[in-house]
Specification:
Layout: H1 2-6, H2 9-31, E1 34-47, H3 49-54, E2 57-63, E3 66-74, H4 75-79, E4 88-91, E5 100-104, E6 106-107, E7 115-118, E8 123-142, E9 150-152, E10 156-158, E11 161-167, H5 168-171, E12 174-181, E13 190-195, E14 197-200, E15 212-214, E16 218-223, E17 225-238, E18 248-253, E19 256-261, H6 263-267, E20 272-278, E21 286-292, E22 299-301, E23 307-314, E24 318-324, E25 327-330, E26 337-340, E27 345-351, H7 353-356, E28 364-369, E29 378-388, E30 395-397, E31 400-407
Parallel strand pairs: 1-4, 8-12, 17-20, 25-28
Antiparallel strand pairs: 1-3, 2-8, 3-7, 4-6, 5-8, 8-11, 9-17, 10-16, 11-15, 12-14, 13-16, 17-19, 18-23, 19-22, 21-23, 24-27, 26-31, 27-30, 28-29, 29-31
Length: about 400
């Protein structure tokens, strides 16, 4: 079997290939004649930039930024070279002042069997400038908008300024910094971290290609979104003075206002009650009153109107003045005798004309409660309560007082 295999043509073919490869490998890797190989676009690396920065200096230009190297050596060594790890070095550590320099290049090859030569340049031209820092204003460009039924407030950014550092020639190009706030149909407030753009003096376009640094890379923007709603203004009425809500009409101006706030706060308010109107205090059939428009601290009055007027008109009622002499003094201070100085009061009553004709002076009582009068002799003006003992819908209108004297 073995004799059959060794005598076949295939066997001799395989052996021939193996021998050829072996001879080629011997020539390349053993005999290994020298060869040269070019390496293009090898980056120029600056050494000592940190030292330069400590002196307040910075390199703003390097020319050329890459070079071409010609490396000579045996083929095996050349084949093992990794061009991604190659570099040429220019040292800036000895530079002490801003100006232009021509620096000698050195390479990073450590193999003594390699000979390295520079094809296009053995030096590099660098420009060194003084490093400066400057505070610039941070502005906001807002292209965002709120959805229907919502309102966007003033966008707040933090911080209001930033610090820019770099070469003086580049920092001097900057007019201000900018952040862009965008978004469509927003329905809730947002807190955003936004990148910074640096803007020049010539136009509103962002500057590009600047080799500068900022003390912050992002700024925080708060975009407030609130619910916007129109609500009616209302008043309530306290019956009295012979009048009820059935006897009046009223007009409120404005009828509505626009408010804004958080969803829950706005949903909790379907109308705004301005206050209560005591009809017994209305001494005329038509009166206009002012009410402050007061909202909860979580809501904002977007209409900007701080007061509302309410005009109340009484209909179908008449008035009558009655001279009342029935004045009663109660709860005089202990140890004192109370005497009335006021002997009568003209009292205004209101109601239907037919009911007013039935009202007589003997149906009235004026009661002065002296419980709050100081326990000291003298004359005092005391607010009183007027009672009308009547079966009709007639009521007393207005406030009244009498003068009393306390005698020990």
């Amino acid at each position: 079997m073995l004799k059959k295999i060794t005598s076949s043509r295939i066997f001799y073919g395989v052996v021939s290939v193996i021998l050829a490869i072996s001879i080629w490998s011997y020539v390349i890797f053993v005999v290994n004649p020298d060869d040269e190989q070019p390496f293009t676009n090898i980056s120029v690396v600056l050494d000592g930039e940190s030292v330069l920065a400590e002196r307040g200096l910075v390199v703003t230009s390097v020319s050329p930024a890459t070079v071409t190297l010609r490396v000579t050596g045996n083929q095996r060594t050349l084949a093992l070279l990794d061009r991604t790890k190659m570099s040429v070095i220019a040292s800036v550590a000895a530079i002490t002042e801003p100006k232009e320099y021509e620096l000698v290049l050195t390479h990073s090859f450590s193999d003594r069997n390699l000979e390295v030569s520079y094809v296009n340049s053995t030096t590099v031209h660098v420009v060194v400038e003084r490093m400066v820092s400057r505070t610039v204003e941070l502005r906001t460009t807002v292209t965002a908008n709120a959805a229907d039924g919502y309102q966007m407030g003033t966008v707040e950014i933090t911080p209001a300024t930033i610090e820019v550092s770099g070469a003086e020639s580049e920092v001097s190009q900057i007019s201000y910094a900018r952040v862009n706030v965008s978004g469509n149909d927003l329905t809730e407030s947002a807190k955003l971290d936004l990148p910074i753009e640096l803007v020049g003096y010539q136009n509103d376009n962002a500057l590009t290609g600047l080799n500068v640094t900022t003390n912050v890379e992002h700024v925080q923007a708060i975009v407030p979104i609130v619910v916007l709603r129109e609500i009616p203004l209302e008043v309530s009425f306290l019956h009295g003075g012979g009048a009820t809500e059935e006897d009046l009409s009223y007009i409120i101006f404005p009828e509505t206002i626009h408010i804004s706030g958080g969803q829950n706060s706005v949903d909790a308010l379907d109308k705004l009650l301005l206050g209560e109107i005591d009809l017994s205090k209305m001494t005329h059939n038509r009166e206009t009153m002012e009410f402050p428009i007061a909202l909860d601290s979580e809501l904002t009055n977007e209409s900007g109107i701080s007061t509302a007027t309410v005009t109340v008109t009484l209909k179908g009622l008449a008035t009558k003045s009655v001279d009342v002499t029935n004045i009663q003094l109660i709860n005089a201070p202990e140890g004192f005798h109370a005497e009335q100085v006021t002997q009568s009061r003209m009292v205004l009553v209101r109601g239907l004309q037919a009911d007013l004709e039935l009202v007589a002076p003997h149906q009235f009582r004026i009661v002065a409660d002296l419980v709050d009068v100081p326990a000291a002799g003298g004359t005092y003006k005391v607010m009183v309560k007027v009672y009308l003992d009547s079966n009709g819908q007639v009521g007393v209108v207005g406030n009244y007082d009498v003068v009393v004297s306390l005698i020990p």
